[in-house]
Structure formats: structure tokens, C-alpha cells
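note to self: dont lose this again. the chain is below, predicted strucutre after it. 219 aa total, dont forget to put it in the shared folder this time
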Amino acid sequence: MSDTTQVSAEQLNALVQRVVASRGFNEADQKTAGARATFGMQHGLANSDLLETSLAALDSSVSAPKVLVENRDSLIFDAHGQPALVQFEAAFDHAVKHNINEIRMHKTACGAFAIPAIASYLAEHGANGSGVCIYYNNLEGGIRRFDLAPEGQLKGLLQPRERDLAWNEVRITIGPAPADCKAVAGTADIEAYRARCETNGISVRTGLWQRMQELAANY
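---
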């Protein structure tokens, strides 16, 4: 048996939604999770390990991040361990509407899924005409920064030189992107990955895919 299974975006989206439903989340969170998981996997921003970790960490008793600090410069939240696969965008919306240019989300998990969350928000609402940088940790412990254009287009993945991020934190800045980063993947690389997924399917570890089907079937 192959170690990976190739699935369509529609199949992945639908199955993630059903798994999230089995964890006790409402319909809005189900749709959010399905869209973010699919976007992340088909653009190379996430893999099976990240998806599995995120699904396992979901907690339906957490309804929203808690505000810890708010001032004119920054917002600090406690996500209570909730992965960025659900919720999250309300915190960003609050920052945009109050002209706050930095959000720090403590005690979150799987921060790469914040990228599709914010990209979707920017495509619909924008952020006062500004681009956005999302800082997060990958599963290997490396800090990454992903840049989004003002309308939510994916600009590229970078590696910051400074380690100004806790292991369980996501930091989002609104405004010009700093130059102190090393490029990891550009727009062309990300688009090429998406095109391959569209042609060949999205690769999901076979064991994970089977487990997700079992969870969905038991719901």
C-alpha cells in the first residue's frame, strides 16, 4: 500500500469538515477548517503531520481567543491551545477595525493555518490597503514568515533572522514587510505546487486519510 493517497480539494475539504463536526464544532467552524486545511495542503503551506496535529488539538470548549493586552500598537491573545485551523479571524478583524498593526496569539497551534485565514479575510475585506506578514513556527521548530499582498495574494515564504517568537505563538503585522529575512519559497514556487496538486491531487498520508474516514463515519 502506498504511503500517500492522492485526493481532490473537494474530497479533502469535505472530509475535514466531517472530522471537525465529529469533534463538536459548529457548522461555521467546520467550513472554516475545511477551507483552511485544503488551502494549506494544496499550496504547500501544510502537510499531513501538521493537519494531523491540528485535528488532534481541536477543542470545541474553546469558543474564541481571550484578549490579554490591548493598546494602540498591539493586541495580545491567549488561544487556549486552539489550532489556527478554526476561529482566529475575529482577532485580526478587531485589529484592522481599530488600526492596530500587531497581533500576537499566544498558546496556539499549527500557526501555518493562519495564512489561509488571513488571506481569505484580506480578499474579502482588506486591511486598510496594507499587506500582512504572518510569523509562526513550523513542526521542526523553525520560525517562518509568510507575506500576503493587500488583497490576500500569496507573496512568499521567508525565514526571519531574528527569533522573536515563542514556540506556541503566531505574530501578525500589518504594514510594510521588513527586509531582514531569507527567501524560502516565492510566488512562482507556491503556484507551481498548487498546479501540481490540481493535476495530480493533494498528497495525504494514507494512514491519516483512513483515520479521518473512520472519525467521520463514527459521527
